Amino acid sequence: MNKARESVSVCMATYNGEKHILKQINSILQQFNPKDELIIVDDASNDNTIQVIKNISDNRIRLHVNDANKGVTKTFERALKLVQNNIVFLSDQDDEWMNNKIDFCVNILADRSYMAVNHDAVIVDENEQVVCASNNTFYKSRQGFVKNLISTSYKGCCMAFRKELINIAIPFPNNIGPAHDVWLGLILDFCSFKVNFSYDILMKHYRHSNNASLFNKRRKLTVILKNRLVLVWQLIIFVFTHNLLAIKLANIKKKNNSV
Who has greater pLDDT, 221 or 59? Predict the structure, then answer.
């Protein structure tokens, strides 16, 4: 706990996560300062997830429950709209954060030239066996709009960013599926915001047999192309309805003036 740092908001979407959520919440809370907040939006779980959260006695947890299942993207959107602090993290319900993750990311974002940071993670299975020693190495993570449209470098659970990004990137389009982090990455890249891609490993990212990740699954090329076409079309609409061209030009001008 570093009381000198800026306060943070952690947004977590939960759904039927009773088996693993307590470990993840504890790994977050042990790094918290008094004014930090953990915003949890539960997507109408039908297991014991909500009760597990309620049993944790910590007033820095803010729990909200969807009246019906809305999917991960809209659940994260609701959490992001509730953010009070200026530095924001996204959290999965079943990972485990290293004890220096928050301080590390806040220190990077102390450099006001950065809008976001995307750190590295080790991928492990249910038995703590390493599946991938470096997520960022596996995905060749870096900035670049075309690169990240084809194969995204952005992983929500590894991201921290300024609250300003929320005001620019939401509401999330209704039909982009479970791709809130891909969307945030495309907005960051399109608008020419500066992102720090760190290869420091700051969390264990678990690949359970029942989680939603596609890391160990092969998707058909036609499905990938369809998803990307949807993202491009939604981004085109978003660019013109939210004046993103002006934001992009302002960032380019800022970068040129700093050279």
Answer: 59
- Selection from 172, 169, 195 nearest residue 105 by Cα: 195
Beta bridge partners of 87: 8, 162
If you count them, how many residues does the chain have?
A: 259
Query: For residue 122, what are the β-bridge partners?
Result: 204
Residue extents of the structural domains in the chain = 8-258
**pLDDT at 127 > cutoff 50:** yes
* Contact indicator for 180, 156 with CB cutoff of 8 Å: yes
Asked if residues 94 and 52 have their Cβ atoms less than 8 Å apart, the reply is no
| pLDDT mean over 124-148 | 94
Among 53, 41, 44, 38, smallest CA distance to 16 is for 44
Contacts of 219 (CB under 8 A, 6+ apart): none
Secondary structure in 3-state letters for 16-30: CCCCCHHHHHHHHHC
The label of the residue with tokens 């609701």 reads 78
Give the CATH H-level superfamily of domain 8-258: Spore Coat Polysaccharide Biosynthesis Protein SpsA; Chain A (3.90.550.10)
Please report the DSSP string for 119-185 in residue order.
EEEEEEETTS-EEES-HHHHTT----HHHHHHS----GGGEEEEHHHHHHH-SPPTTS-S-HHHHHH
Tell me the sheet residues that pair with 123: 132, 205
